[in-house]
Write a structure and sequence with these properties.
The chain has 3 domains: about 80 residues, OB fold (Dihydrolipoamide Acetyltransferase, E2P) (Beta Barrel), CATH 2.40.50.100; about 60 residues, no CATH class; about 220 residues, Chloramphenicol acetyltransferase-like domain (Chloramphenicol Acetyltransferase, 2-Layer Sandwich), CATH 3.30.559. Helix content is about 30%, strand content about 25%. The protein contains 10 helices and 19 strands.
Amino acid sequence: MSIEVKVPQLPESVADATLVNWHKKAGDRVERDENLVDIETDKVVLEVPAAASGILKSIKIEDGTTVNGGDVIAIIEEGEGGGAAEEKPAAKQEPAKADKPAATGDEESASAGKPLSPSVRRLVEEHELDSSRIRGTGRDGRLTKADVLEYMEKGGDKAQQEKPAAKPVAPATEQPRATGAREERRVPMSRLRARVAERMMEANNETAMLTSFNEVDLSAVMELRKKYKDVFEKQHGVKLGFMGFFVKAAIEALKKFPVVNASVEGKDVIYHDYFDIGIAVSTPKGLVVPVVRDADQLSLSDVEKSIGVYAKKAREGGLALEDITGGTFTITNGGVFGSLMSTPILNRPQSAILGMHAIKERAVVVDGQVVARPMMYIALTYDHRIVDGREAVLTLVTIKEMLEDPARFLIGV
């Protein structure tokens, strides 16, 4: 029986996509749910899995071709060689190591003994996980990337994760290094990079961007982290980072100044009575902004967990379109790269974005005394069409006050 492999239906906001990389060639054996090809939209890279096991009879569309949702890109012959292949032992499945306890009860994976897609297998092997202990939620109980990431987030195979990391392999999308030779290389932009460039130019040309700055003494936050980091991680299974504090502080400021959480649509201002906070993440393929939904309703630990899951998805190329769609306010952290001060660009159609920067110990005057404190410059870029300087400055001041006395947003004052 011949089965058509089609491009997944694309969201209304995505006009078309580019077929970027076939992982199989015509005549190859494929397993159901195995990733056949990567398709890049202007937002994310999508994997197209095989709908059935069989032989990849033909490839209709080659790498680099623009495609639309529903286009037929390949044919799988389900019957040819299908039965024989199913009877073969799974060569890729290794027996559980003797020093690991056997999974029992609820810990036993529904995916045990079933083939892993290449992307899932890479993730499992990279972190030296026992795939038989992970419960799969894919078709017929197969493992998905999300299953593996969730398992790791909950501390699965923790002993393995604490081993020294293997030497990282440079991603295929890494920028080529200069050799010193007088040569030039012309490389086309990826769709994601081109879309990022387009959105940056739109923000620059279609909004009235202005940036205000302030500085924050992070002594109180750092003291809290030092005092509670071990018990926090033990109780919640996630590290107590800085971003959770900034998300919570920003929400308190947005509650006071709703226009900073608003967006522009034509000549209308859309006020949002919810707080979907985007966290900008840099990846080898470009900048993505996964969104933490209803962040005001989450605990500090839940915010940190969400950020951790999205960061892993971004690094592994596993973000879905719904993960990066929407958002009412964005936070970006150039400090992780050493940036001391910058002017972030708006993530349209949002009206503001908060920039975090490197923490530096600096001399400051406190109660008439010169003391060394861990200081961070923060920046708020805003759309001056709807946000006045007063709201922008007071938003930054509120964030500063909350971070310098975090008990305020923890107890709601």
